[in-house]
């Protein structure tokens, strides 16, 4: 099977000179090319040779593709008689109703087409184009997978109703992703959307994106749709961010979930709606419908849910006894330590939890909340992957210490992300957290953010010493930007990290410190002490680095024998010649596969 990938307009010209008869899979990215009527017609003509082509991906983000161009291209698609999968990324071009109608009329002639991914966002196709397209789609009899992006295309409620009705006639459709965001659709449109789509009996996966419309879901769910035929649906995702959803809306959503009896994955995103303490109790009722769910994602960011709302969510979570993967976003929701303790207690009541992602940024959790959270997570005995976003929460040294001590009791955690940025954990907090985590014997991947925490030199020393004893650590991401670090900090840090015997991937963010040329030289001198390191990312912006330090780094990189992936960002420093030296010397690294040197 031959696979082709070509970039930019010059690559398109090379593509047009080739023999395509043997291609089965083809991807063209014309993002940077300037398209013309002639070369688009040539591309269309070339596709007629692709008699064995099964999968075609075209990414055209030129902003110049018009109705005539897309019509010429579409007219040749039926000649690819073996085509089963088609992706057309046509975002932000000049396609209108005429072009979409011509494209759709050709797609229906691709008789073997099973998978269609069509991104038409930010094109002025309007109601006429979408209605006509949907009429053609219902005749694609073999279509099993449809991904349709109509974000910001100027359609109204009636068009949504017609679109969903016609899609529902694709009787063997198994997976549907429909993006109708930013179209000013109100509740009338949703009233027709759900009854149609939830009656596709073959559907297994449904994802609806209705972000930034005018939806309230204030209709009576019983009168909106009767019993759904979508009994086989296994995964349902509903994105309703930036709408007007209130308690009636949550009741509406709950009535949908109640009918999806075979559901094992549910994602509901409601951030930036009208959810407050009065109506947030309905969220608990929604969760009580999730007793069979294994994967749950709930996003109610920027919602003032209050004590009673938190309690109801916590009670609802305890009902999800089969859940093994939980993502919960309650950032910017005025949570306090009592709220977090209530939620945390529910987590330890879920015996099958393996993956947890908690986003509690910008609340008022403080030390006590961090302690409650850590203690409960330590009691999740099967936990393997944990992500904690706790930045801007007035967590100090004791809170970090509590977290480290509690999480250190977990023998099963393999991958850990902790964001403690913009708190006040200082040097002792960093030390205690790292020392506690040292007891996580299964830990292989660690991502910690201590950005803007005033940890200073002492904190970095303590952190480095603790990390040096992580015997099983393979991947480390460390953000210690904006911490008043001087040049000596990097010497101890890198020397100690090099003692991690199994470390293969390292990323360090030192932005907005004062390590200078000497600090960068310390980093350079330590590189060859990492015996197994194959991937390195250094973010060193705003660090008063001069040419001497940059040149030293470039020489060390040239001598390195293990690195395969390299990313360096040294913008906003004083090292023009040094940057040139880094670029030249990294080109001499024989093992290097991926190389990115950011330029100002």
From TrEMBL:
UniProt keywords, alphabetically: Kinase, Transferase
GO CC, alphabetical: cytosol; nucleus; perinuclear region of cytoplasm
InterPro entries the UniProt entry points to: LRR_dom_sf, RanGap
GO biological process: nucleocytoplasmic transport
Transport found in the keyword field: no
SMART domains, A to Z: LRR_RI (SM00368)
A single MF term (Gene Ontology): kinase activity
Protein name: Kinase domain protein
């Amino acid at each position: 099977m031959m696979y082709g990938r070509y970039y930019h307009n010059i690559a398109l010209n090379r593509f047009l000179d080739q023999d395509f008869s043997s291609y089965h899979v083809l991807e063209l990215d014309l993002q940077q090319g300037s398209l013309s009527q002639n070369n688009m017609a040539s591309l269309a003509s070339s596709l007629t040779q692709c008699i064995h082509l099964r999968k075609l991906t075209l990414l055209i983000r030129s902003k110049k593709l018009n109705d005539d161009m897309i019509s010429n291209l579409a007219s040749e698609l039926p000649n690819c008689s073996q085509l089963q999968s088609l992706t057309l990324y046509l975002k932000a071009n000049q396609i209108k109703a005429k072009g979409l109608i011509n494209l759709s009329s050709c797609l229906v002639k691709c008789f073997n087409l099973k998978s269609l991914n069509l991104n038409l966002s930010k094109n002025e196709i309007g109601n006429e184009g979408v209605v006509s397209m949907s009429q053609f789609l219902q005749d694609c009899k073999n279509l099993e997978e449809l991904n349709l992006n109509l974000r910001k295309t100027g359609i109204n409620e009636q068009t949504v109703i017609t679109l969903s009705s016609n899609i529902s006639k694709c009787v063997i459709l198994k997976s549907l992703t429909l993006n109708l965001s930013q179209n000013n659709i109100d509740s009338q449109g949703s009233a027709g959307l759900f009854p149609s789509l939830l009656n596709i009996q073959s559907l297994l996966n449904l994802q609806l994106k209705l972000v930034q419309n005018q939806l309230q879901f204030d209709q009576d769910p019983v009168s909106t749709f009767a019993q759904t035929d979508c009994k086989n649906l296994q995964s349902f995702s509903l994105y309703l961010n930036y709408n007007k959803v209130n308690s009636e809306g949550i009741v509406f959503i709950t009535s949908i979930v109640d009918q999806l009896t075979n559901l094992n994955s549910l994602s509901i995103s409601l951030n930036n709606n009208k959810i407050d303490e009065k109506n947030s109790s309905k969220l608990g009722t929604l969760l009580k419908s999730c007793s069979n769910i294994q994967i749950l994602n709930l996003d109610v960011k920027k919602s003032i849910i209050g004590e009673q709302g938190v309690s109801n969510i916590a009670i609802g979570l305890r009902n999800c006894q089969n859940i093994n993967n939980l993502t919960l976003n309650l950032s910017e929701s005025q949570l306090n330590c009592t709220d977090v303790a209530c939620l945390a207690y529910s987590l330890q009541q879920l015996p099958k939890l393996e993956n947890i992602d908690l986003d509690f940024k910008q609340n008022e959790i403080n030390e006590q909340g961090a302690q409650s959270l850590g203690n409960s997570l330590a009691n999740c005995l099967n936990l393997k992957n944990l992500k904690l976003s706790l930045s801007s929460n007035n967590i100090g040294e004791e809170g970090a210490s509590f977290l480290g001590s509690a999480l250190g009791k977990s023998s099963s955690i393999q991958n850990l992300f902790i964001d403690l940025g913009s708190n006040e954990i200082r040097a002792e907090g960093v030390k205690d957290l790292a020392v506690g985590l040292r007891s996580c014997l299964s830990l292989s991947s660690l991502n910690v953010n201590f950005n803007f925490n005033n940890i200073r030199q002492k904190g970095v020393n303590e952190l480095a010493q603790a990390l040096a004893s992580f015997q099983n650590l393979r991947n480390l991401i460390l953000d210690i930007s904006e911490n008043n670090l001087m040049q000596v900090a990097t010497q101890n840090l890198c020397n100690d990290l090099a003692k991690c015997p199994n470390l293969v991937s390292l990323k360090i963010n030192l932005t907005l410190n004062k390590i200078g040329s000497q600090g960068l030289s310390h980093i350079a001198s330590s590189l060859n002490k990492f015996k197994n390191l194959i991937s390195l990312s250094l973010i060193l912006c705003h660090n008063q680095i001069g040419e001497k330090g940059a040149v030293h780094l470039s020489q060390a990189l040239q001598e390195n024998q293990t690195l395969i992936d390299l990313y360096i960002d040294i913008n906003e420093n004083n090292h023009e010649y040094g940057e040139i030296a880094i670029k030249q010397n990294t080109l001499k690294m024989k093992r290097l596969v991926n190389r990115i040197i950011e330029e100002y």
